[in-house]
UniProtKB/TrEMBL annotation:
<comment type="similarity">
    <text>Belongs to the terpene synthase family.</text>
</comment>
<keyword id="KW-0460">Magnesium</keyword>
<dbReference type="GO" id="GO:0008299">
    <property type="term" value="P:isoprenoid biosynthetic process"/>
</dbReference>
<keyword id="KW-0479">Metal-binding</keyword>
<protein>
    <recommendedName>
        <fullName>Terpene synthase</fullName>
        <ecNumber>4.2.3.-</ecNumber>
    </recommendedName>
</protein>
<dbReference type="Pfam" id="PF19086">
    <property type="entry name" value="Terpene_syn_C_2"/>
</dbReference>
<dbReference type="InterPro" id="IPR034686">
    <property type="entry name" value="Terpene_cyclase-like_2"/>
</dbReference>
<dbReference type="GO" id="GO:0010333">
    <property type="term" value="F:terpene synthase activity"/>
</dbReference>
<dbReference type="InterPro" id="IPR008949">
    <property type="entry name" value="Isoprenoid_synthase_dom_sf"/>
</dbReference>
<dbReference type="GO" id="GO:0046872">
    <property type="term" value="F:metal ion binding"/>
</dbReference>
<keyword id="KW-0456">Lyase</keyword>
């Protein structure tokens, strides 16, 4: 559909990202157990009711966790699943602090992470944070703990910025959006969980190496930008513009389908970037190389796992995910008034 036609598009065709990604899809054998345990943990004390409970079941976070951390032992997988589920529900869990916006939630969470044994607060989001983090620090390396907290801090800073942009009706330029989205995605703390889930203790100078950083960024970009494509329909129906597709339409002057294709190509390039970087990893000696290979495999698990999960979850396509995965056709929802 060209930009000059006045008719509003009724559907979009998704890029074929699943075929472009030939990484092996793996699923952790503890998936069912941790799904049940996390559900009990999340619902304790009436945290979520009615529609929010249904949304939890439709989310299938346990499947995402099991595909992204396929080799984790059961206790580690449970912590990862608690964290991912909590991340998806962070808005709901901090409802009682909505009046203060994201900053008060950030204070609760970060105080709970920096002082898990001494910080006391009655807010449920703080209690849940302390609960999973106390379990994480039993086996996580000091470096993984530090990276988890630092990147989660960046997440809250960027979410606060996003809330401010949304309030002002701002559509950022593409470069600013990409920089912000790498933190609002919440991927970076999940990369620290790869270290934790696989019992890795990789030196800081290795984790800070440009190629390791570039691999993490390529994986983040693929997970995040593909998520913008998959979530576009639900978001446009709510009038939410914090998505790469409207950003590209605005900056490049493209119509909707052309913008979807543009972002799709960027996703494919991020997979190609990852493959190139992986082939060019330097060597740090047998022990570190072994751990680095496991970490990089973990990033690849996230790329392939998130792509397949997006069509299994009901978050983006309701009950039609598998059909959309085959046809790649998404019928656009009407704009909510």
């Amino acid at each position: 559909m060209s930009a000059s036609t006045s008719t509003t598009p009724t559907k979009i065709i998704l890029p074929d990202l699943v075929s472009h990604c030939d990484f092996k899809k793996r699923v952790n054998r503890h998936r069912k157990q941790i799904t049940t345990e996390t559900k009990q943990w999340l619902f304790k004390g009436g945290n979520l009711n009615g529609k929010k409970r249904d949304a939890f079941h439709g989310l299938k976070a346990g499947l995402l966790t099991a595909m992204c951390y396929p080799n984790a032992g059961c206790p580690q997988l449970r912590v990862c699943n608690d964290f991912l589920t909590y991340l998806f529900h962070l808005d709901n869990l901090s409802d009682d602090m909505d009046n203060y916006g994201t900053r008060s939630t950030a204070d609760e969470v970060l105080n709970s992470l920096y002082h898990p044994h001494t910080y006391r607060s009655s807010a449920r989001v703080g209690k849940m944070t302390r609960d999973y983090y106390k379990r994480l620090i039993i086996t996580a390396s000091p470096g993984a703990q530090q990276r988890f907290i630092e990147t989660f801090d960046f997440f809250f800073q960027s979410v606060t910025q996003q809330a401010s942009d949304r309030k002002d009706g701002l559509i950022p330029d593409l470069e600013s959006y990409i920089a912000l989205r790498r933190d609002t995605s919440g991927c970076k703390p999940c990369w620290a969980l790869i270290e934790y889930a696989n019992n890795l203790d990789i030196p800081d100078e290795v984790m800070e190496h440009p190629i390791i950083q570039s691999l993490g960024e390529a994986a983040n970009d693929l997970v995040t930008w593909s998520n913008d494509i998959f979530s576009y329909n639900v978001e446009q129906s709510k009038g939410d513009t914090h998505n790469m597709i409207p950003v590209v339409m605005n900056e490049e002057g493209l119509d909707l389908q052309a913008a979807v294709d543009f972002v799709g190509n960027m996703c494919k390039q991020s997979i190609d970037r990852f493959v190139d970087d992986r082939a060019n990893l330097p060597s740090w000696g047998p022990k570190i190389d072994h751990d680095v290979a496991l970490y990089v495999d973990g990033l690849a698990d996230w790329i392939v796992g998130s792509l397949h999960w997006s069509f299994e979850s009901e978050r983006y396509f309701g009950k039609t995910g598998r059909e959309v995965k085959t046809t790649r056709v998404v019928n656009l929802l009407p704009r909510r008034v």
